[in-house]
Design brief:
The complex is a heterodimer.
Chain A (H helix, E strand, L loop, with lengths): L1 H24 L1 H8 L6 H20 L3 H27 L7 H10 L1 H17 L8 H33 L3 H24 L9
Helix pairs in contact in A: 1-2, 1-3, 2-7, 3-4, 3-5, 3-6, 4-5, 4-8, 5-7, 6-7
Chain B lengths: L1 H14 L10 H15 L3 H19 L1 H11 L3
Classes of the chains: A mainly alpha, B mainly alpha.
């Protein structure tokens, strides 16, 4: 019984790894397949990866205890996001399932992991502040290019995620996303004031 | 033969999962299709060079502010 559980979890882990690579090369088709997914083990794998990230990042910064708090807040933020998208899209399309939002949106966290994890590694290898030397400027430009690339990848995945979860057109997706930003902006400010996230992990 | 048919049916259902975007204006539809094409498959081919261009432009336009931004972002995790 326990063995079966771990075998299933390992299979889900392999699928997640494969999908991460496919989301780089073929995001449209991969997100379409993810929207039809039924295997909840993949969501667990993504949550485990995020938990490991929080443990790693907060070990460098404030301590593991704060990492557990940050992880719990990330989970709340994740469900607020998916429920918001689900309820907003429900106004336009009644034939929706909440699971689809959880599956697709959990995969949009992949660029977020890449950025936050590499940021934590850079924090150890090349701690800020950046200098105005030639090497400092060079690293800054590369870092900016890297961050912009991941942000665009994230936006592409969020668009495809909403497209396949909501089955709506571009304008309605943009409308829902703008409404979400109106919710996220004060929430991010609050989390920043509480010293939980400097940049929201979502 | 039947399995081939069911596979084809499944594929057709998957492909027609979402309706194509219709903006009610041919030019906009074409523009959307042409732009979206770059993001559907291997988006990094266009995203990475564009990001490098934007990063260099940010440095040229804002100079040291761009470097300050990197210091702030590096503390952002």
């Amino acid at each position: 019984m326990v063995f079966d559980f771990f075998i299933k979890l390992f299979a889900s882990f392999l699928i997640v790894l494969r999908r991460i690579i496919l989301l780089i090369f073929d995001p449209y088709k991969t997100m379409r397949k993810i929207s039809l997914e039924k295997d909840k083990g993949q969501i667990w794998i993504i949550l485990i990866i995020s938990f490991l990230y929080f443990m790693f990042a907060y070990k460098i910064r404030n301590g593991i205890f704060f990492g557990i708090i940050a992880f719990c807040i990330f989970i709340i933020l994740f469900f607020i996001t998916t429920i918001f998208f689900y309820l907003s899209a429900k106004q336009f399309n009644k034939n929706l399932t909440y699971d689809r939002f959880v599956f697709t949106y959990s995969y949009t966290l992949i660029p977020t992991f890449f950025w936050f994890f590499s940021n934590a590694v850079f924090f150890i290898l090349l701690p800020p502040p950046r200098t105005y030397s030639f090497l400092g400027k060079g690293f800054s430009v590369i870092y900016l290019a890297f961050s912009i690339s991941l942000l665009v990848w994230k936006l592409i995945l969020v668009y495809f995620s909403l497209r396949f979860s909501t089955r709506l057109g571009l304008f309605r997706i943009l409308y829902i996303f703008l409404l979400y930003l109106l919710l996220l902006a004060p929430l991010s400010m609050l989390l920043y004031q509480l010293h939980i996230f400097r940049i929201p992990f979502i | 033969m039947k399995s081939d048919f069911s596979r084809l049916k499944h594929r057709m259902e998957e492909v027609s999962l979402v309706e194509p975007n219709d903006f009610g204006f041919g030019l906009l539809n074409n523009l959307y299709r042409n732009v979206n094409r770059f993001f559907k498959k291997a988006p990094f081919i266009i995203v990475v060079p564009t990001s490098i261009f934007i990063a260099i432009s940010l440095y040229i336009l804002f100079g040291f502010l761009a470097i300050r931004l990197v210091s702030i972002l590096q503390n952002g995790f």
